[in-house]
Amino acid sequence: QLQLVESGGGLVQPGGSLRLSCEASGFTLDYYAIGWFRQAPGKEREGVSCISSVSDTTNYADSVKGRFAISRDNAKNTVYLQMNNLKPEDTAVYYCGAKFRICGSNWSGRSAFGSWGQGTQVTVSS
Hints:
globular; 0% helix
C-alpha cells in the first residue's frame, strides 16, 4: 500500500523557520515526483512546491519563491520542505502527494497527485 506521512509542523512566530518531512512507505520515491500542497480554512488546496524524480527539477508557487526550498533524500525515502521567513498567510495544513516521475507544467493542480498523507498543521502567529 502506497502511503505518505507528513511531519514537522507546529507553531512558529513570523520570520521563523520549519522543516516539513514527507516519508514514503510501501513504495520507493526514486520514480515519483512529490508535491507539497497546503489548505487554509475555507480555501482550496493549493500547490506550494514540487520536486521531480528526473534531475530533481523543482517548482515553486510565486508566494513562496525565495523562502521555501524542497529537497529529497532517496536513501531515506523522504522529501523535505524547508520553510524560512514564515508569514501568517503561510498558516495551513500541509500535505504531500505523489505522481509518476515529473512534476510537469500542471504541477500545482492537486488532481494529478495521489497517495496523500494526513497532513501536518503549520501555524504562523505571534
